[in-house]
């Protein structure tokens, strides 16, 4: 396994990987083939989702005040999965890394499928789940996953999420013998 070493600095050590705005501050961006990272405004626009060809939605802020998405809203045309995460540094988002990654992987394994992963703004909770997916199913290091997503969208997972992603990175490296 080739893993880029993480930059050394304060906090999680990822400060040099995440600073500044990336190429996009759009409502939604394709950050991996057929994988779209976006915000609540995108998720609430059923016609826009239909035009994009979205077949699956993962809501990383399910049940929170601003993200009330559910199966009934999308009907039978879109498969919905809700993750009740809060964008707080002390929230344990890692409990959802593997289940969300599996949902994304299954969706993208379906011929013709396209998935939207969103939260309220589309930069912290949903981005963290996309990063975990890339690490778990595509064997990217955390640094490489961040770089890959940032080529298409500006993201900013909170410090607590970055720490949990760093722990996932170390766990996966150890399991893979890297």
Automatic annotation (TrEMBL):
Its EC number is 3.1.3.16, 3.1.3.48. It is found in: Cytoplasm. Pfam families: DSPc. Keywords: Cytoplasm, Hydrolase, Protein phosphatase. One of its GO terms (biological process) is negative regulation of MAPK cascade. GO terms for cellular component: cytoplasm. Residues 26-174 form the Tyrosine-protein phosphatase domain. Coiled coil: none annotated. It is an enzyme of class 3 (hydrolase). Its main location: cytoplasm. One of its GO terms (molecular function) is protein tyrosine/serine/threonine phosphatase activity. CDD domains: DUSP13A. Residues 95-153 form the Tyrosine specific protein phosphatases domain. It catalyses: O-phospho-L-seryl-[protein] + H2O = L-seryl-[protein] + phosphate; O-phospho-L-tyrosyl-[protein] + H2O = L-tyrosyl-[protein] + phosphate; O-phospho-L-threonyl-[protein] + H2O = L-threonyl-[protein] + phosphate. The active site is at 119 (phosphocysteine intermediate). Belongs to the protein-tyrosine phosphatase family. Non-receptor class dual specificity subfamily. PANTHER family: AGAP008228-PA, DUAL SPECIFICITY PROTEIN PHOSPHATASE. Dual specificity phosphatase able to dephosphorylate phosphotyrosine, phosphoserine and phosphothreonine residues, with a preference for phosphotyrosine as a substrate. This is Dual specificity protein phosphatase. It comes from Sphenodon punctatus (Tuatara).
């Amino acid at each position: 396994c080739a893993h880029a070493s993480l930059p050394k600095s304060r906090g999680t050590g990822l400060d040099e990987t995440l600073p500044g705005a990336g190429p996009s501050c759009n409502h939604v961006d394709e950050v991996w083939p057929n994988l779209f990272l976006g915000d609540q405004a995108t998720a609430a626009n059923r016609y826009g989702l239909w035009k994009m060809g979205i077949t699956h939605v993962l809501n990383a802020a399910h049940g929170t005040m601003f993200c009330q998405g559910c199966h009934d809203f999308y009907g039978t045309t879109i498969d919905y999965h809700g993750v009740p995460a809060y964008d707080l540094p002390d929230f344990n988002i890692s409990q959802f890394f593997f289940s969300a990654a599996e949902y994304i992987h299954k969706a993208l394994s379906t011929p013709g499928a396209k998935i939207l992963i969103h939260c309220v703004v589309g930069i912290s909770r949903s981005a963290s789940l996309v990063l975990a997916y890339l690490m778990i199913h595509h064997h990217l290091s955390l640094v490489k996953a961040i770089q890959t997503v940032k080529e298409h969208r500006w993201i900013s997972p909170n410090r607590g999420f970055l720490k949990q992603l760093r722990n996932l990175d170390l766990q996966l490296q150890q399991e893979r013998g890297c």
